[in-house]
Design a protein that fits this description.
three-stranded antiparallel β-sheet, alpha/beta, about 350 residues, binds pyridoxal-5'-phosphate, seven-stranded mixed β-sheet
């Protein structure tokens, strides 16, 4: 089988060795002669998976015991509701920055739970930039931001200095670069973009922000219940969490955050330099806010898209068709995508220019 260069936006590419280890665990997990899919989540072998999957997040984020990590079902989308449910006091206000589709969905849920104020937005320019220099109300219960906007291809290079607890949806750029995790009260990420397969969502929360809403809490919606249960209050998504653990261990074994940040920088630079140089393509977002994870670009002459599509498909490239809201192309450069795959795409773009530029 020839190699496919997988630029899928999500679920996204996973390391080959992680796929192989995961496949093996489906047949015989830990030498038990049982599949990981058919053993109790309370077995010793699985409890170890859960423990290490939780502790490795804290290790990679370099935080201590003031933080707790849980893995939950329901996707990042459930966190849009759980965050205000757990942090927004009944008479309090939550502040949000609206940077795209996912941020808008988070705002929609928060508004159902309580007072919600959008303090900055880039909707005026179709979410093609990151708002900066906005004022954060010092009486807000928290500020919610989205570090990387998967659909529009913008990314926060710097995070706001925040006088209130900072909450971040990191679904599409978690562990892609160094961040100062201690500046955040809560970080969540659906695993399927950059840390594992679909089915589990990682939530890391600072314990001291919890339990203050005055709300009567539904158990499954209560972070404190999941923390107390060691992320096993109910049956967790056992297999997705295992694959996530393997992916985090792959990251660590290869050099950790410092290594992946350099690789991701190199991949993004290679592709954006070509988008800027090539007369056939144009980037869609403000240069300083370009995402290292999702590079969106359009063709100057869209009538030639079928020709370009034919060429990249012949080069075994997959998943670069743009989101329906943006059109054109989106190349997702998640952690597991090798630099060589980006080089293949860049070569096809060069070849296309030679053939079709006037
Ligand atoms: C994909 C994505 C989501 C939604 O994730 P689900 O797990 O499908 O609910 C939320 N936020 C961001 C930034 C995303 O990229």
């Amino acid at each position: 089988m020839s190699k496919v260069h997988n630029f899928s936006a999500g679920p996204g590419i996973l390391p080959q060795e992680v796929l192989q280890q995961s496949a093996a665990a489906c047949i015989d997990f830990d030498g038990l002669h049982l599949s990981l899919l058919e053993i109790s989540h309370r077995s010793k072998n699985y409890e170890k998976v859960m423990d290490v999957a939780r502790s490795t997040v804290k290790e990679l984020f370099e935080v201590g015991d003031e933080y707790e990590v849980v893995y939950l079902g329901g996707g990042a989308s459930l966190q849009f509701a759980m965050v205000p449910y757990n942090l927004l006091r009944e008479n309090g206000t939550a502040a949000y920055v609206n940077t795209g589709v996912w941020a808008s969905k988070a705002i929609k849920e928060a508004k159902i739970i309580g007072n919600t104020k959008v303090i900055a937005s880039s909707e005026d320019k179709k979410f093609t930039y990151i708002p900066k220099g906005f004022e954060i109300p010092s009486d807000a219960d928290y500020l919610h931001i989205t570090s990387n906007n998967t659909i529009y291809g913008t990314q926060m290079r710097e995070f706001p200095k925040c006088p209130v607890p900072l909450v971040c949806d990191m679904s599409s750029d978690i562990f892609s670069r160094k961040v100062n995790a201690k500046d955040f009260a809560l970080i969540y990420a659906g695993a399927q973009k950059n840390m594992g397969p679909a089915g589990s969502t990682m939530v890391m929360v600072k314990k001291d922000v919890l339990g203050k809403t005055g709300r009567k809490m539904l158990s499954m919606m209560d972070y404190q219940v999941h923390i107390k249960g060691g992320s096993m209050y109910n049956t967790p998504p056992v297999f997705p969490i295992y694959v996530t653990l393997l992916t985090l261990q792959w990251l660590k074994a290869n050099g950790g955050i410092a290594w992946i940040e350099e690789l991701n920088r190199a991949k993004a630079t290679l592709l954006y330099d070509e988008i800027d140089r090539n007369s056939c393509f144009v980037g869609t977002v403000a240069t300083e806010d370009r995402s290292w994870m999702n590079a969106c670009f359009l063709m100057n002459n869209p009538s030639l898209e079928p020709e370009f599509d034919k060429m990249w498909k012949e080069a075994n490239i997959s998943g670069i068709r743009g989101h329906r809201d943006v059109g054109g192309y989106r190349a997702s450069l998640y952690n597991a995508l090798p630099l060589e795959s980006v080089q293949v795409l860049v070569d096809v773009m060069k070849e296309f220019e030679c053939k079709y530029s006037s």
